[in-house]
Amino acid sequence: MNIQILKINDEELVFEIDEGHTICNLLCKRLLKNPSVKFAGYNIKHPLTPVSIITIQTKDLNPINVLEEVISEICSELNEVKSVFYEVSRSENEKTN
Q1: Is residue 38 within 8 Å of 57, Cβ to Cβ?
Q2: What is the DSSP-derived secondary structure letter of residue 59?
Q3: If we measure between CA atoms, which residue out of 85, 64, 73 comes closest to residue 29?
């Protein structure tokens, strides 16, 4: 995954990422739930290439810190899903054996 910062200041971060709708949509939706975020959106350069530009504008916090916080929350939730899935699949496997 390649990321290139295009613009950064105290309240705005614009970066390019080699990802399509899946990651960008998840990030932006989660960013918009954060009360410190004024704007979060993305634009895909071309529909056939998964290169997107994500823009984050914050009210009073460093946008990189907000992005790191949101990514950590997403990772925690995915680890929880992974644990639950592991438990369910293990119990199903035990039933069949």
Answers
A1: yes
A2: S
A3: 73
pTM of the model: 0.83
DSSP annotation of 36: T
User: Distance between CA atoms of 17 and 80, rounded to whole angstroms?
Assistant: 26
Rounded to whole angstroms, what are the CA distances from 68 to 25, 72, 73, 88, 89?
Answer: 16, 6, 9, 30, 31
> What structural domains and CATH numbers belong to the chain?
3-96 (3.30.1360.10)
**Residue positions counted in the chain:** 97
CA 41 – CA 31 distance, rounded (Å): 9
Q: Is the pLDDT of residue 72 over 80?
A: yes
Residue type, 37: V
Give CA–CA dist 3/11, Å, rounded: 19
